[in-house]
């Protein structure tokens, strides 16, 4: 009714409370849990640190400069005090520009969230919401109360962004790594969504193994991760025990904490390796953390051990898919492939998997693996991944007898050459996502018929004898750092016609499979010169103190 609309217009509408507290912003805070020199807004700096500063590298901190009115944090030094002190002021700053933002009342625009992908289940709902010529972007959380207060620190949440150190109750999640030398440093924080794998040397001795924290399981799981609302404890996923001769055994129970101890002049249960696996949501909230351990033993002669550490991240309700480059392919990593499920474009998804040595179960681009006896019928199911940039050829021998039927033999050879489920698409980049349909290249299939071979079949029979795959790729991007991109994939099946031979005769024919990578990059245009190559070695401490 008109009176209701008029009343709604008369009431002042305000957005949610500001989500940016300038008093907590600090762009010069670069070191984790350490005081940055001349960074007056660094919360890790104490009064003693401020007394040694000569200036404030960032004297003013503000939020969005487009706002008409906003808070500003002012930092300065009182050099006349003894000792010098830091002065902090929080003022209201007015934007003199006529074109300014009065209120940031659309909270959803302050962060980037993954869009909801249309599926057969939610398509009607999305069409109803966004299908008209115009639609409302008002979030349901808008408040009609002008007296909205800032949220308290009690409700502070931990939503992580890429590369931000993962906070724990005492400091941050440690991922030991070598710094200047190969010795382990425990000051390396694990960054959110940054997959890392490190190895370093740790000094140990049997007499003191029980007092060295870094060789104990407790050192890596005794602190909980600060997550959304609650704290996430690090659980033990698995424990593998390694003997002195290198043999490894997986323990059945992983709920037992095994601490280092001396037994028969040996120190057992020392940590040789830790693998963290973090599960998170699309909003950057960590909901689960698990650790897998490799425990070993040392004798009195051992003065040091090598430890390995690794961390990986998986989004909840998704399957982890290893990449083969970012973005371009890396030579030696598997070519990623997949197929388009039935019902496309609902859901808009291409199912794919990383290539591993198996029976091509998950629609993976693989090639026939040669066996020692070269028997084709015995080689069924043996596949090996196609690695980017590696030309490969493999094969076997097929002995044809009079008892073999044409149709089953043809299907057996096709399964042998192509695998149980030959993919339809290949990822153009090493990091192509399933929902980015245009980043996937369809595989072109060709058939060639060759000469005839006599055999024992009553009539002519066409059997496949070879599969040749050609992968064309190009250098994409700048000349300084070109990225490998696949632009075309062709799979050619060559068949041979078999005809009847006298009874009792046998024939052995070769079956081959190959893949060739062809660089079709265009040469640089005349007038453009490639960047020169500098053949120089940097000093070992060039990046000190950074890793």
UniProtKB/TrEMBL annotation:
One biological process term in Gene Ontology: protein localization to ciliary transition zone
This protein's GO CC annotations: MKS complex
Domain Tectonic-1-3: 159-316, 325-519
Record has Signal as a keyword: yes
Keywords: Cilium biogenesis/degradation, Glycoprotein, Signal
Superkingdom, natural source: Eukaryota
InterPro entries: TCTN1-3 (IPR040354), TCTN1-3_dom (IPR011677), TCTN1-3_N (IPR057724)
Domain spans labelled Tectonic-1-3 N-terminal: 18-123
Signal peptide: none
Assembly, per entry: Part of the tectonic-like complex (also named B9 complex).
Family the entry assigns: Belongs to the tectonic family.
PANTHER family found in the cross-reference section: TECTONIC FAMILY MEMBER (PTHR14611), TECTONIC-1 (PTHR14611:SF1)
Protein name: TECT1 protein
Gene name of this polypeptide: Tctn1
